[in-house]
Every structure is written in C-alpha cells, then in structure tokens.
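User: two proteins, same treatment. go.

Assistant:
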Amino acid sequence: MMLIFLKTLHLITAIFFIGCVYFRTLIVPRIKPSLGTEKFGEVESLLAIHSRRFGNFNNALLLISGLCLYYLYFDSSAWLLHFKAFLGLLLVVLFYLAPFFVPPLTRSYAGFKSAFHRFLLGMMLLLVVLSQALFLL
C-alpha cells in the first residue's frame, strides 16, 4: 500500500512540476505582445512568486517520494535508474538554486531565463522517457 502511495504522490508532483515549467516556458511568453513589456513584467513577477511558493512544497514532496522510491528499487547494476535519479535530483536542485543564479544571469544575458526554462523542460521530458524505459529493462 505504501508503494502505491509513493508512486502516486511522485507521479502527481512530477506532473505539477512539469506542468508549471511548461506553462512558464511555452504559454506565458505568448501574452507579452498583448500586455506590453511593463505590464508583462508585473504579471510574470506575480506568477513567479506564486509558482515558486507552490513549487517549494510540491518539489519537496517530489524529492522525498523520489528518494523513497529510489531506495525501494535500488539495484547497484540498474544504471538507467541511477541516471534517472541523478537527473531528477539535478532538476530539483536547479529549481531550489534558481533564485540565486537566474536573476543575475538574466540581467547579464537577456535570453537566459527563457533558455533556462527550455533546458529544464527538455530535461523533464527526457526524465519522463527514461522513467518509461525503466519498464522495458
């Protein structure tokens, strides 16, 4: 019963994390022409505050459930599981560290935030594919 709970929690929190990054990467930038640069900046700041607050809680649950599942499925020869766990851990670490390095880099390099979000989304899609590939081995 605990395994089903952990898998469900991990899946739901992963969907929320991926959905949030998808929304911030591919949907939000599309409203900029309608709002103008100044108003768009305000909207984006508000979205960032609320999505980060939710993300802090969601991604803590994602990390905890992922670590528990990793422990339960651990096999020293399961290289794909180790790689998937590494990518998942890297994604969560990048999420928590982003407030410290994304704003300064965005001030220096105009497209950094957008490129960072696309990079995260790409890593997330790779992680989903890897999680399905685990069932093939």
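Protein 2:
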Amino acid sequence: MSSLIIGLTGGIASGKTTVSNMFADLGIDIIDADVIARDVVALGSKGLQAIAARFGDKILLKNGELNRPALREIVFSQPEDKAWLNALLHPMIREQMLAQTAQAKSRYCILSVPLLIENKLDEIVDRTLVVDIDEQLQLMRAMARDNSSKSVIEGIMQSQATREQRLKVAHDIIYNDKDIYRLEEQVKQLHEYYLQLAY
C-alpha cells in the first residue's frame, strides 16, 4: 500500500486528467473517481438499473448504456434529482475509491476526484493538490471539450467549489495557465517532493 495519498482536484476542464496522466507516466498509481463513476453505472450495473428505474428510457442510449448528456441536463436543472443521484452513487464510488487506494503499490498514489472538497473526501487523503486555472479559460475549454452550452457549463461550475475555496485548502497547487511543458515541469517537481515525503 502507498504510504502517502495525494488528493488531486480542480474544476471542470482545469486539466486534472492531463496532470494525472503525467503522474501515471512517472510510475504513480492513479485512482480516478471519474473512471469509478463510469464503472458504477456501466451496462448491467446496479447503479444503472436504479437510474433507469427513476428516470426511464430517456436517459439510455440505444445500446442500453447511460446517456450522460441527457442525465446531466436533468440533474442540473432539478436539484432534488441531483440529490437523489448523489445519494445513490457517492457511497458506491467512495467504497471503490477506498478499496483501490488500499491496493495501490507505488510509493505514493494519486486519488483524482473532481469533487474532492465538495464531498469532503479531502479528509481521506494526506495532501490536497489543486490544478488551478483562470475561470474564463476554464469556461471556454469546457464548452469546446464537452460541446455543451455556456449555461450548462456555468451551472456545473457553480455547483463546484469556487476557485478560492479550492486554493484555501490546497497543500500544493499546479498552475495550468501556460503550455504543456510548464505543466510537466510542475508535475516533476511535485513528484520528487512526494517521493521524499513518502517513507
């Protein structure tokens, strides 16, 4: 088991995945909440069955898989539906995250969680690493990446911790405001630092 757990977080389209991939390239085990979140609603899962029972076939694709954009539109406009979905999925995701963290083999591991702070998961990590980005740049990147409307992305951003809230609890910060080389440089510096902290 890793002796040090780093909680990696940041708002939508901040560059978390790029950063976690860079740590993975350095041989670090990554436990990714987004991957786990997809697994718990995969075809045939209890999670997907419960969601379909509540929202009906309109949230399913023709092949029976979850239609994420359709579900996203519903839950971000209906607070009670969002609360129901969170109550269903968060315990499942948390259980898997803890299991995978316990199985990590690298000297330290990265627990990548978009809502680390919002869901108080920073309580289960040793250090919190925030990928920081200017909010206007974040909005533009998210709209381009997800092909979603400005209002949907703004709704997601408003549902997440603010930039200030994230920075306030951060032990370490990676600034994603320049090019990929600057990003790599910061990851390598933190990698060396975390190796020193991991006994």
